[in-house]
Structure formats: C-alpha cells, structure tokens
Amino acid sequence: MKYVVVSGGVLSGLGKGVTASSIGVLLKSAGLRVTSLKIDPYLNSDAGTMSPFEHGEVFVLDDGGEVDLDLGNYERFLDINLGRDNNVTTGKIYSKVIEAERRGDYLGKTVQVIPHITGAVQDWLEEVAHRPADGSDEAPDACIIELGGTVGDIESAPYIEALRQFQFRVGRENITFVHVSLVPVMGPVGEQKTKPTQHTVKELRGLGITPDILVCRSSAPLNDETREKLAAFCHVSPAAVMSTHDVPNIYHVPLMLHEQGLCDILKVDCEVTDLLQRWRVMAHHLDTLSEEVHIAMVGKYTNLSDAYLSVIKSLQHAAMAVDRKLVIDWIEASHLESDWENVDERKQAWDSLKQAAGVLVPGGFGDRGVEGKILAAEYARTSSTPYLGICLGLQVATIEFCRNVLGFEDSNSTEFDENCKNPAVVFMPEISKTHLGGTMRLGSRPTIWQVEDCKIRTLYGEGESVDERHRHRYEVNPDMIESIESAGLVFVGKDETGQRCEIFELEGHPYYVGVQYHPEFKSRPGRPSPPFLGLLKAATGQL
Ligand code: GLN
Residue 292 in contact with residue 325, Cβ under 8 Å? Predict the structure, then answer.
C-alpha cells in the first residue's frame, strides 16, 4: 500500500480536498486502485448533526454514513464508493479508545493520547485503507489521506503525531507527504510572497513531518524565482514545488499537476490508462460551452453554495451532457412568500423564477421557506416549467398538489404542522438497528418501478429497480396515495414494501418529477444522475 498524506497550512479553503482528489486521479490514471480517507479533527462523531450553515452539506454514503462533503469530491473524482469509516473524526477515535478502556483492554495501563489515541488512529487508517472501494473485491494499491484543518491547530496535533509515527510503521518509501499552502500576491508588480508557506512548513517540520511535495495555491502560476526560494527555505526539491493557480474549471487541476511533473515525483506513469485523456476532453468541453441554461434553485442556504455542493455538481454534470453552460439562479424560498415584506426582494425572486428554464427544490429540514417552496412547485406545475423536487422538494410538491388540485386547503407535512387535517406528508421513521434513537432513513435503499413506461424510468434505463441514497424521516401519507394518483400525480417508484413513495411524475407535464431520495450523491462527471439529466434535457428541449 502506498500512502499520500495531504495536509494544509496558512488558512482553510485552499482546495486541499480538490488537490488530494486530483492526486488520486493521477494515481488512478497510472492504473492503480485508489481509495481515500478524510480526517476531521472535530469532536462530533459524524457530520450528521452539523448545520450546513457552518460545514456545508452533509454527504451521505451507501452505508448511511453522514460525512464531510470532501468524501463527495473523492467519490466523484475517483469514481469509488466509500463507507462511513473512510471519514475519521476525533469523536469516533475517542469513543473507540474509551470503549476499549471500559472493557479492560488496556490491562491496567494509563490510557493516554500517546500512544493510545495515536495508535488507534494508525490502526484505523491502515485497516480502512485496505478495504475495496471501486466495486471490485480487490484491495486498493494506494490511499490518499487528507488531514482536515490547518497544521498548528490544537485539535489536529494528535493526528500529526500519529502520521509522524505512521511513516515508520508503513516504511518511509511507502508514504508521500504533500503540504498545501498559499502564495499570496502583493504590491503593484504582483510579487509572489513565500513567507506564509515558509512558516507553515517550519511548523510541520517542527512536528516531525517533512513534506515531500508543496502545492501552492496562487492566482497565477508560480514563477521560477518563487519556486527556487520555496525549495530553499522549505527543504523540498524545486521540482516538487507545484502551483495550483486559478483555472477556468476544476477538471484542470489533475492536468495542471501532471504538466508540472507530479507523476514523475510520485514515480508513476499517468498515461497507462486513458483516464487523463478523458479528463482533458472534459476540461476542454466545459471551457467551450457558451449557450446558457438557467436553473432556479429554490432553497434556504442560497448564499452558501457549499450547502448544496452535490446538487450543484450534479446540475453541472447534466448541463455538460446537454452541451449547455449552467447558470444557477439562487432564490431564497422565503422571498417568494406573499407576506415577504421587502417588495423588491419579492419581485426579484419571482422574476428569476419566471425567467428560469427549469426549477429545482433541493432537500431541507425545518419550516423556514417551506411556503415559498410550495409556491415554486405550484408555479412550475401550472406553467409547464420543468421541475425536479429532491426529498423536501418532493414533499412540498405533494403538499401543493393536495392543497390546490385535491382541494385540501390546510394540507401540510406533519413536520411543519403536527395537527393539520389531511396531511400530505407524515412521519415515517426507519428505526435504526445500530444507533439508539436513530430514526432517519439513511443510505442506499432500492426503489422498485411501479409502471412500465414513464419519463424518469426511461432516463434510468434498464432494470426493475434503482438504488439511491436517502436521508429523511417524513414521507408521502400512504392514506393519500390513491386520491393523489387519481388526479394525475403518479408514484412511479416505491420501496420494496410498497408503503414508501420514492418517485412521482406528473402526467401531461413536460417534466415534473419528485424523488424522496437524494440522487445528487451518486452523480459523476461523464455519468450524470438521471433525474438531473431529465431536468436539463427538458429545460433545453432535448427530452
Ligand atoms: N425534512 C424532510 C424529512 O425529514 C426532508 C429531508 C430532506 O430533504 N433531506 O423527511
């Protein structure tokens, strides 16, 4: 097993995750089986309880793991399927050590950060790195380990120490340390400043880790002088100083690292497979798209694109497939509501909604903006505008249909109005066998087609069922299904018990589709998720 450890310095948000995934792409292009692990030094056990406001979206895995959004980058870049254990957190490590202590596993010893926590971290990394991730049952050849946070943080210190020890456990020749840093540009001539990087490398070396490769985030390519200086002060060879400068799209990142000789440093031939060539085509294709398609995203974290990262990626994958440049028009759901006091904001929200070629209502929790989302669904239904509702987006469209088509005026979800009459959506928990109190329906579950022929089934292609990932507690009220369907909103996909409605499609509408699951977690570049592809095709007249 070869390990590549990616740490970061100076500040967060330098694209450490993208750098790490891009290195993975290069190793994969060399014909290696690649997996990845992300270390998040926070105390939460997982990302499930964390607000998208603070941490971006919660990414959901096949096994129901609720993890950091970086795992989504790895799955998309490397086309692999990870499990919850691929996301290490301090919460998980400490729970494990404390449980072992209670069992008496430490035989009377004092249990300490070193060696017990650092040992548990290393055991975890080594074991999970060997788990197959690419759908085969073969163990990977290489593992990318990304250390979250910034070197120097108190909470990441035990991990740095664990990784320092790890180089002796696995052999120095089997581990490469990559440090991602920032090279800011100052002054009228645009001088590239190396001092922040010098400091962070000094700190890392002080903790016992010497980086083999420096990846420097900068606006323009590093000039030779900067490279030389960084090499001299940071104890790396000039050839191992990479620049990740601004590029028109993310698919350029592996290509630009390759062009700077990263594969030579890693001693791999990156043209063994045609993967890199496919990335070149993809990067170029995206650069050359000019005809726009506008999709309105009606949500509640619209000023925080990380909160909907996988949805955005899925829209991009689908837009590429229909040869359009994607423009997302963000609409704050509550601005659509009739009692929104700022008239300009309301007008603006409605104008954007009406100008869009397609409408998407993503998942969400809590009642803020729900009435606005219901209005967006109504608008899309009655104006024949293509609509995709995901999870809460399916639920609001069902409520809208019950209110305005079936005439149940006060219909709602019991999540928002516990005592409403004729609830369209009700609490249907799935009781977790492993987590006390766990009621969320989480992870991959099958959806069985209920009809032979419909748009969304055609988009998915062959097969009697589809597997997609879930994260919700509420569902369409089983008592309402018959009336809803008789009025034209058909539940074309259900779970294997026939109780849970997974997909609806509205008869006689160009594309009005709702899915209870989250298709955004399985979309891949070059293999867009079918519900998104349907939305983009319908929005561009290609369905
Ligand atoms: N709040 C809704 C539920 O729990 C929708 C969840 C979601 O959109 N992920 O069912």
Answer: yes
pLDDT of residue 434: 65
* Cβ count within 10 A of residue 83: 17
**CA–CA separation, 268 vs 487, rounded Å?**
60
- The H-or-E segment that residue 315 falls in is helix 309-321
pLDDT of residue 80: 96
Angstrom CA distances, 228 to 2, 44, 194, stand at 28, 41, 10
The pLDDT of residue 13 is: 82
CA of residue 362 to ligand 1 center, whole Å:
10
How is residue 8 written in tokens?
A: 């970061």
What pLDDT sits at residue 10? 86
- Profile the chain (543 residues) by mean pLDDT over runs of 10 residues: 95 90 96 97 88 86 93 96 96 96 94 96 98 95 96 94 97 97 92 95 96 96 94 94 94 96 93 92 95 96 80 97 96 96 96 98 92 98 98 97 96 94 91 72 96 96 96 95 96 95 97 98 96 98 96
The distance of Cα 234 from the centroid of its chain, to the nearest Å, equals 33
Could you write out the DSSP letters of every residue in 104-137? TTTTTPPP-IIIIIHHHHHHHHHHHHTS--SSSS
How far apart are the C-alpha atoms of 522 and 443, rounded to whole Å? 11
Residue 190: predicted pLDDT: 87
Q: Write down the H helix ranges in 130-235.
A: 157-170, 195-206, 224-234
Return the ligand 1 atom nearest residue 475 CA: 10
Q: What's the rounded Cα separation, in Å, for the pair 497 and 503?
A: 14
The pick from 370, 418, 425, 473 for probing ligand 1's pocket by mutation, whose C-beta has the most ligand atoms within 8 angstroms, reads 473
> In this structure, are residues 152 and 203 in contact, taking their beta carbons and an 8 Å threshold?
yes
Cβ count near 290 (within 10 Å): 8
Instruction: Output the CA 392–ligand 1 centroid distance in Å.
Output: 5
- Give the torsion sign (CA, 275, 278, 284, 286): negative
CA end-to-end span of the chain: 46
Burial class of residue 279 (count of CB atoms within 10 Å of its CB; 0-12, 13-18, 19+):
buried
Which ligand 1 atom sits closest to the C-alpha of 365? 1
Residue 493's SS3 state is strand
Q: Residue 422: left (phi > 0), alpha (psi -120 to 50), or beta?
A: left
Give me the sign of the Cα torsion angle 260, 261, 266, 271: positive
What is the strand order of the sheet 501-506 is part of? 325-332, 292-299, 358-361, 387-390, 512-515, 501-506, 489-494, 441-449, 465-472
pLDDT at 146: 97
| Count of C-beta atoms within a 10 Å radius of residue 517 | 29
Residue 234 designated active-site: no
Ligand 1 neighbour 445 (Cβ under 6 A): no
Residue nearest to ligand 1 atom 5, measured at CA: 392
